[in-house]
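dumping this here so i dont lose it
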């Protein structure tokens, strides 16, 4: 059986590694670099699902390849679901400044008792021109200070339910089994195998 080639519409090396580890041998995973896509695909939708679809449909339209894209947000109950779709750019600026984003989050939660939060990943898969959506959610809470060195993004301040350590302390092996992205990718895997 030929390995299915799938483009994962991301240039985030962390995400690629994480997803490749979860998908294992059954799929040949290509990044945007691998297909020579240098476009910064805009993420202008108001929802995670919308952003994921923008990215996957861009690749399908322009390259004709089966692909999937994800968008992930941290949704904090006391902040009405913020930062949500703006998680990467929460502190303003060009985005992806994890330290600034975490500091803003901790600051916004100061004095709030309710620290409940969830990470949510939406994956848009386009296969033979049809779109499929998968979602993964992990609930937890935002602790009051950063702990741990592994992972990326908000991992040092997010403690998943049922654990006494943050994502950044649990390390990638455990995180890749329980995370929001892992759950969404798991559903994607099962779908690809079916």
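and the seq i came up w/
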């Amino acid at each position: 059986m030929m390995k299915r080639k799938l483009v994962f519409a991301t240039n985030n090396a962390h995400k690629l590694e994480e997803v490749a580890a979860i998908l294992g041998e059954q799929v040949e995973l290509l990044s945007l670099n691998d297909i020579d896509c240098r476009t910064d695909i805009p993420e202008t939708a108001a929802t995670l699902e919308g952003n994921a679809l923008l990215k996957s449909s861009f690749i399908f339209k322009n390259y004709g390849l089966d692909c999937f894209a994800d968008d992930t947000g941290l949704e904090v109950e006391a902040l009405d679901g913020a930062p949500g779709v703006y998680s990467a750019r929460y502190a303003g600026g060009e985005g992806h400044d994890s330290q600034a984003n975490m500091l803003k989050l901790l600051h916004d939660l100061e004095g709030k008792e309710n620290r409940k939060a969830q990470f949510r990943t939406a994956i848009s898969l386009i296969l033979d021109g049809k779109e499929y959506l998968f979602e993964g959610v992990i609930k937890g809470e935002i602790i009051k200070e950063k702990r741990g060195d592994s992972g990326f993004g908000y991992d040092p301040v997010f403690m998943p339910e049922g654990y006494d350590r943050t994502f950044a302390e649990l390390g990638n092996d455990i995180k890749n089994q329980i995370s929001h992205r892992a759950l969404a990718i798991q559903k994607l895997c099962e779908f690809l195998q079916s």
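The radius of gyration is 17 Å.
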